[in-house]
Write the structure tokens for this entry.
Amino acid sequence: MIFANVKLQPGDDASRLRELGLPLKLKQTTAAAGGVVRFTQPCAAHNGCRCSVYPDRPTYCRQFDCLLLQSVKAGSLDSHTALRVIRRAKKQVAEVRQLLLELGDAQEQKPLRTRFREVCRRLEGSACGAREAQVFGRLSLAVHNLNLLLAERFYSG
């Protein structure tokens, strides 16, 4: 997943989304401004490859097109090439997940970025063996490669 959380926009029906099972959180900003309603990622409404709240999905979800999709829509990239990029990204994510698991992190409900930071903190605060150091090195490289791929092919700007 690319984002840690998604902010609801004006016009999004927070009560309807809660009714449909999407857990929402209120992040306090300032006393005058009130707060921002958001939901964390991975999205609780994501079920396999489908969104369980699709007809009522938040505005941000409706409007989001990653750079890869923008390129296909613009005709600068064909769909077969885009699907190869997606398969490559999924393979890279699977590698990161596997390496996190090898290092004792099985918190699939958390974003990969958060899991990686937590593993980094844990390993910095303790001595680790040669095997664990080797796996951590592979994980660091896999996360770096995933970030490069995401930045190059999925993030706009």
User: Anything to note?
Assistant: The first helix runs from residue 14 to 19.
